[in-house]
Amino acid sequence: QVQLVQSGAEVKKPGAAVKVSCKTSGYTFTSHWIHWVRQAPGQGLEWMGIINPNGGSTGYAQKFQGRVTMTRDTSTSTVYMELSRLTSEDTAVYYCARDHSNSHANAWWLDPWGQGTLVTVSS
Amino acid sequence: SSELTQDPAVSVALGQTVRITCQGDSLRTNYASWYQQKPGQAPVLLIYDKNNRPSGIPDRFSGFSSGNIASLTISGAHVEDEADYYCNCRDSSGYYWVFGGGTKLTVL
Description:
The structure holds 2 protein chains of 2 kinds.
Chain A: E1 3-6, E2 10-12, E3 18-25, E4 34-39, E5 45-51, E6 58-60, E7 68-73, E8 78-83, E9 92-102, E10 107-113, E11 117-121
Parallel strand pairs in A: 2-11
Antiparallel strand pairs in A: 1-3, 3-8, 4-5, 4-9, 5-6, 7-8, 9-10, 9-11
Chain B: E1 5-6, E2 9-12, E3 18-23, E4 33-37, E5 44-47, E6 61-66, E7 69-74, E8 83-90, E9 97-99, E10 103-107
Parallel strand pairs in B: 2-10
Antiparallel strand pairs in B: 1-3, 3-7, 4-5, 4-8, 6-7, 8-9, 8-10
């Protein structure tokens, strides 16, 4: 079955960077884009960006432009999300999720999701 | 940038029907997808591509879209439907996606 398994929780100091991994299995890695979504404590879901594992092209939410980098390793079917210059406002659970689309119907959706990675930013 | 607006909280009596709405300009051209999230868990896809349900999602969940409004209907709410619900849509003008603010559903 399709699985997205993320790396473990991280604790970082303000100003540092964090790199979260999302290892995929159960499907052809290059056939689906991968989204990154985060959720601050008690808050809603926030879309961060998307990466195409086939070629590595990316698209980032304007809020994170210049601070986020999404990459992939086709040899291990893993995607990565690195966020730099961390502040306490980046404390959140970070999720990866597989993209699906029906472009004929202008429909896109995310399924399945990884289990989430808690990133805590604290001095 | 485009936004999706949801009511922050909705309640429903056990066994009754409830509709959760999502409003935004991108919905005029793109379909919304819907997600359920329970405390401490990752979101789960409920509705996609007009009104389709993944396998394992009960048929009491349905979706509808008209103009700039998408809606999720739960017909006959169960206790286990108490959760947060989010809509999501690809923005029509750019290469990004957006989530609604989420609706907390309480089953009374």
